[in-house]
């Protein structure tokens, strides 16, 4: 399971005071925090190393949080990356738009520490479960590939046996195959 000692959380906000507050809250709780002040910077950092969760401000100059979220959802590497949109705008309107672009959760500013930590913990738990499912699916795909290879080998052997039986007695054909 992803625990606070291992989880890396990216904070994306254009207001330095907000970044410092969130980074400090996360680090005091044992998370590794990385910060970006623009959407473009966040996407660049994520391309280098995908964090476990992103706290993303909606209103930023240049690329908005909505645009960053859409880009992350469009990339197969980050399509399941947990994203929490942070806003001081009307939460009702922003939630609908956020859901449309693929956000997983929302938090309103000013940030409530207990709410933030509860949401982070919950989304990291969900991410851990998704990671386990993907690992199991990958393992299952390997087993299926191995099984398919073995079945093909056995079918080939049976076909050879059938051809040999046309020329030799069944006992002799079996001895040749073995």
Structure description:
The chain has 178 residues and is of the alpha/beta class. It has six helices and five strands; from the N terminus they run βαβαβαβαβαα. The chain has a five-stranded parallel beta sheet, sandwiched between helices. Strand 4, helix 4 (91-101) and strand 5 (105-108) form a beta-alpha-beta unit. Helix 2 (39-48) runs parallel beside helix 3 (65-74) and helix 5 packs across helix 6 (170-177). It is rod-shaped and about 85 Å long. The two termini are 49 Å apart.
In short:
With 178 residues, this protein is of the alpha/beta class.
Per-chain topology:
Elements lengths: L7 E5 L3 H13 L3 E5 L2 H10 L4 E5 L7 H10 L8 E5 L3 H11 L3 E4 L4 H55 L2 H8 L1
Parallel strand pairs: 1-2, 1-3, 3-4, 4-5
């Amino acid at each position: 399971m992803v625990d606070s000692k291992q989880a890396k959380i990216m904070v994306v906000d254009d207001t330095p005071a907000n970044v410092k507050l969130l980074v400090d809250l996360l680090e005091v709780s044992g998370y590794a925090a990385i910060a970006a002040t623009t959407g473009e910077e966040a996407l660049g950092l994520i391309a280098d190393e995908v964090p476990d969760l992103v706290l993303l401000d909606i209103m930023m100059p240049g690329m908005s949080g909505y645009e960053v979220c859409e880009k992350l959802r469009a990339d197969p590497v980050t399509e399941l990356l947990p994203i929490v949109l942070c806003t001081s705008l009307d939460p009702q309107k922003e939630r609908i738009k956020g859901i449309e672009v693929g956000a997983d959760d929302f938090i309103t500013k000013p940030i409530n520490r207990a709410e933030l930590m509860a949401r982070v913990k919950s989304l990291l738990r969900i991410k851990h479960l998704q990671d386990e499912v993907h690992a199991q699916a990958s393992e299952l795909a390997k087993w299926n590939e191995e099984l398919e290879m073995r079945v093909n080998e056995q079918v080939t052997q049976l076909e050879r046996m059938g051809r040999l039986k046309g020329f030799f007695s069944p006992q002799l054909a079996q001895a040749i195959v073995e």
